[in-house]
Amino acid sequence: MKEFRRSRRRQVGEATQVTDSMTELVIGHIGNVSETGMLVMSNAPLVSDALYQLRFALPDGGGRTAFEVGAHLLWHDQASAPGQAWVGFRFITMSDQQMQQLRRWIDAPGSQYA
Questions:
Q1: pTM for the structure as a whole
Q2: DSSP-derived secondary structure letter, 3
Q3: Distance (Å, rounded) from C-alpha 99 to C-alpha 110?
Q4: Mean pLDDT by 10 residues, the chain (114 residues)
Q5: How many Cβ atoms are within 10 Å of 36's Cβ, its own excluded?
Q6: Can you spell out the DSSP letters for 68-112?
Q7: The pLDDT of residue 4
Q8: In this structure, are residues 29 and 39 in contact, taking their beta carbons and an 8 Å threshold?
Q9: Using CB atoms within 10 A of its CB, is residue 100 exposed (0-12), middle (13-18) or buried (19+)?
Q10: If DSSP codes are grouped into helix, strand and coil, which group holds residue 17?
């Protein structure tokens, strides 16, 4: 099957929470991340086509690298578990330093891609 995505999506090997920075509520867990966005398994009521300020920390060689991003909720789809949904976010703001960290994390040796 041919891959049509513009950016590689790295799977996150452990449960990684995503927090809405405005409400301080955990909205879900990351499924995968690319340079342009991420897939989240959410258990929070989110609004389609809305803008969010999100915080998460990716595992990085025994530690964690923190990210704070502006994101646009592009789509959501009900998951098989009641009250949960798959949610697609597109990153709209991220510092240059964090973008470089994210690129290194995605390209790290041993990464698994979705």
A1: 0.88
A2: -
A3: 20
A4: 64 91 96 96 94 94 90 93 93 95 89 76
A5: 15
A6: EEEEEEEEEEE-SSTT-EEEEEEEEE--HHHHHHHHHHHH-TT--
A7: 46
A8: no
A9: exposed
A10: strand
Burial class of residue 101 in the structure, from the number of CB atoms within 10 Å of its CB (0-12 exposed, 13-18 middle, 19+ buried): middle
Token representation of residue 101: 């960290």
Residue entry with tokens 């950016």:
7
Is the CB of residue 105 less than 8 Å from the CB of residue 60? Answer: yes
Q: How many CA atoms lie within 13 A of 110 on its CB side?
A: 4
Q: Which domains does the chain have, with CATH numbers?
A: 10-107 (2.40.10.220)
- Residue 5 backbone dihedrals phi, psi, to 5 degrees: -70, 150
